[in-house]
Amino acid sequence: MTVRHLTARLLGTLCALGAGAALAADLVPVKIGVLNDRSGVYFDSTGEGSVVAARMAVEDFKPEEHGLKVEVVSADHQNKPDVGASVTRQWYDRDGVDAVFDVPTSSVALAIAQITKEKNKAFINSGGGTADLTGPACTPNTVHWTYDTAALANGTGKAILKRGGKSWYFITADYAFGLALERDTKAVVEKNGGTVVGGVRTPFPNPDFSSFLLQAQGSGAQVIGLADAGLDAANAIKQAHEFGVRQGGQTLAALLIAITDIHSLGLDVAQGLAFTASFYWDLNDGTRAFAERFEKRMPGKKPTSYQAGVYASTLHYLKAVEALHSAKDGAAVVAKMKEMPTDDPLFGKGMIRPDGRKIHPMYLFEAKAPSESKGEWDLYKVLETIPAEQAFRPMSEGGCPMLAGMTAK
């Protein structure tokens, strides 16, 4: 090769590198933080699986083709509001995070919502359940994606009432989520002709439900409502099975349960439990395809509804950022998310209401009997599809202060 040819090739390479660097410099930077429980009662249902789901969404979005450069970081909030608040402030103030995703544990989620508003970032909640996030604690910077306590109460509460479960006793985790779930389910029970005969508060987290279950058995209630989640819910269900609660004629209402909890319990224990959720990996071709890809990254695991919510909400968030060509103004990004219809392979078509509530169908499921299951993760059967417009609390009943002067439906 001549010196002239070598020089020409070198110049061409340098030009290409320069053009690539210029292109990269033109990309809009976006930094997403997945904040959840990586070591406690929700580590299996959120944890690393939610981080994987966010990264899958980023890859599927192909950000560079849309003018974005996206980074995903993660942290453990340990189910403690002060820890979650500290991480979030550091992310926003020092680390350049534009949006926080997931956040199970409602007390942590409520704290993050207020910090996010203060810093004008975006908070897209999937794991936290309290309906207050789109009620008294709503902000223009929050979207509540996957489910909430009002939808769980609507689904499971009404279903058990229809089956004749009129008198209820609650075993409630004594923190924001448990209290909100009891409140919302109690309202549904009483509105539909049922009664609440009593209840007990339990520490969070809590490995031993023996004394609480004995009180519930002694109450004579037809239904024992478990207003908890994660390993707490699994422990309560397992111990109720050992105590013969359902064999004694009482109905156990698992007001929030994840597929990872059902899987760990086994169908011998979980069979017949009715519960409400927004996602199941085996619902349709889209959910099955996602679950297959997810399992390659999380061997031996199927995605939970919370993890599916992180995937879908990350996709929609990135579409809004692309439309604005910026992630810096969190309220503007959330407003754009509300303006754009939602559409993804896991939740289908939907929308985000002015109060921040994402709307999609919910499903009433029942845990299969062992004889009905055809595989390790073949755990649910669909009892009922609850239409989107019926699944969630009307805006007019939520008490969101942002809606003052607006027509709430």
Automatic annotation (TrEMBL):
The keyword Transport applies. SUPFAM superfamilies: Periplasmic binding protein-like I (SSF53822). Keywords: Amino-acid transport, Signal, Transport. InterPro entries: BCAA_transport (IPR051010), Leu-bd (IPR028081), Peripla_BP_I (IPR028082). Pfam families: Peripla_BP_6. Residues 1-24 form the signal peptide. Gene3D superfamilies: 3.40.50.2300. It comes from the Bacteria. Residues 29-368 form the Leucine-binding protein domain. Belongs to the leucine-binding protein family. This is ABC transporter substrate-binding protein.
